[in-house]
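Let us work through a complete example step by step.
Step 1: write down the sequence.
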Amino acid sequence: MGMLTQRLRALRGCVLGAVALLSLVLLTARVHAQAARADTLDMVGRVALVTGSTDGLGREVARALAARGAHVIVHGRNVERGRELVQEITTQRVGSARFFAADFASLAAVRALADSVLKHYPRVHLLVNNAGIRLADRTERQTSADGYELHFAVNYLSGYLLTELLLPRLRESAPSRIVFVASRTQQPIDFANVMLDGNYTSGRGYAQSKLAQIIYAQDLAERVKSSSIVVHAVHPAGVMNTNMMRSIGATPRSTVEQGLASTLQAITTTVAPTGTYFFESTIATPNAQAADTSARRHLRELSQTLTGTP
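Step 2: predict the structure and record it as tokens.
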């Protein structure tokens, strides 16, 4: 009798595991089917802020959203490229655009950007946190204007601060959406040495900052799920053929067009539940630390302290 009970329990576990796997496969298939259709989320007349949109993937996302009828808030450090993109979008006479300059290595600059957006836009429907850096492997540890490790500051903290400052406006504009352009390159955060002082590699700095984005995205999704705000994170593609990747000597393994398709899916899908992490176009599971409630709490408290947000 005992042997039979054990076998039944084992069989039940296998069945439940198979059901869970089948559910994930079916959900992914639904997302793929939806992505194959035309626009799934109407962007006409919606206001979209795309950070880091003067070059690379961000530039293509801004172009694509404008082509779908959105008003795009273009952001970057390079004023000339920003104005060129606004002019290009304006000439197409489909969507519209406006440029704001801000250096994400400075939290004061991020605050100024948020103030400008709130001043000029009574509604913000979409925030794409795309701005980021990747330093070459042999680069010595660098810090931001606020003294924080540069990857963590630019890739994570600035996006965190901007999101928190714009969150009330996104709530007022709901249904709205926040998308984090993250990466498959993820490494658990060492909360005893987040700034990697004395134990630094650029790869570790980058990987930690990208996991921080995903942890925040999933934590935020839980916080705002009753506010009609959808939050996703996406690894858009492998090493893309962008100027940033070329500048560090990386060999491209994919194209910006591939990354654009994945990012647009995360932006427009209405099937995947809030808090989804996409590996390219597939629903995936990030590093285990993203599901760790203790890690989420530590990152939340650290981020509040470093940025001075409540």
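Step 3: interpret the result. Residues 100 and 116 are 8 Å apart (CA to CA).
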